[in-house]
Each structure stands twice: as structure tokens, then as C-alpha cells.
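Researcher: Predict the fold of Glutaconate CoA-transferase subunit A.
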Amino acid sequence: MTKIMTVERVVAELESGMTIGVGGWGSRRKPMALIGGILRSPLQDLTIISYGGADVGLLCAAGKVRRVVAPFVTLDSIPLEPHFRRARQEGTVAFTEYDEGMFMFGLLAAAHRLPFLPTRAGLGSDVMRVNPELRTVRSPYTEEELVAVPALEMDAALIHLNRADARGNAQYLGPDPYFDDLYAKAAKKTYVSCERVVDTADLLKAGPVQSLLVSRSMVAGVVEAPGGAWFTSCEPDYDRDEERQRRYNKADWREFLDEQ
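Model: C-alpha cells for Glutaconate CoA-transferase subunit A follow.
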């Protein structure tokens, strides 16, 4: 059964107030075509869970976000995402900040349908002070105190991969999966945009079986979106557009929509 959808159809299945996970990392392989669809929609009051980049910045600038949950929001070669920084300085969005390890454990807990996972990450740091809702647990084996990282549960996840078939099997061809498989497992529904939809038999012509990151059982919809991660990178199909990113750093966020 085909799961091919348009950007507009995906956005129509989302609702205001949802918690939405966004895959990729910083300014790498972000589902920017899907983010553009949300920007054009009436959706609002969203909680965004992300290794954040321009996805978070754009949604904050457009007034779509109530809370961000992230370990960072960066453009990689530009350390701090400008629109997110402005939103935080103006106090228009709430922010739950974990370190990268804690964030990963939150994704893992949600992917495995656990309420939390224990970790040493965060102990002895200000993470516990700025997140007073966090709790600790004691190991029943060693009595060691550990941070209980809550599951990062999501109503929907949006990810961008290099290739997919019409049934939702999706493949990455770049250097890193960026935890997109955890987003897909953790969310109630996952929507995949990709550079190209190919026949199932052709997926392994481009990469080994280990590159088949996401199974069709995790996917509710597939959007063929060539250049759908631009201006972030989607290696090996294209690198990050550094010149456009520099302009984005200083420009009105609406220019991104004008160029899509």
C-alpha cells in the first residue's frame, strides 16, 4: 500500500498543541520542506523536541511554539540559532534543556515505551537545578544515585532521509543516522520526507542493508521532496548552503519561505 503524501497532507494531519519531534542534527538533514508546510499553516502552541537547528528557529520566529525541548539549537558553523536566541531573550517560548546524553536517553525511553531511563549524565551539573522537575533513582543493585530521564514522548515525528519507497522504508546515505530511527520509534506517527522515492528493490543499490534506517511499520506518510533539507545538508546529495545560512542568520525568517 502506498503511503505517498504531499507536504500539505502531512501538515493537515497535525494539530495545534501537539508535541512534535524533528529529526536531523543542528544544520544537518533537517526536514525543512515539512517545516515550511507548518510555517504556512495555522498550527500553533507546539512543543518541539529536537537536536535543534533552523527548524526550531523558524517555528519560534513564526509564533508556532510554546516549548522547546533540546540539548542545543545551533546552525553548526554559526554556534547559536538567531531566531531561537531572540525568542528566548524575549521570553516568548519556554525551554527544557538537557545535555546531549540525557536527551538521547529520553528518546531511547520513548522508543522502548519506558517511562524513563537512568543515567549518570547530569549529575553534579546545573541541569538538575534548571530542571527542578527531574528526579533521581537509586540502583537496586549498587545503591548508586542516577538521574531518571523522562521519556520524550511525541505525537508525531518529522524526519528527512535520502531515499524511501512508497511503503515507508527509508534509507540514509550520509555519515550519520542522527537518531532519526529513535524519533520514528518514539512517535505515535512518523512522516518521512526524502530526496527521492525509489522502488523497494532499488534501495540496496545505493547502500548496504544497515542504511535502511526506518521500517515501513514506523511510517504513516512519505513525501518526495528533492532538496527537502535545504539549506541544511543532506549528504551525499548536497552539502549545507553556507552562503544562504549566513544570510539567514541576519535576515527576516520569512525570506526562507519566499525561496522554498
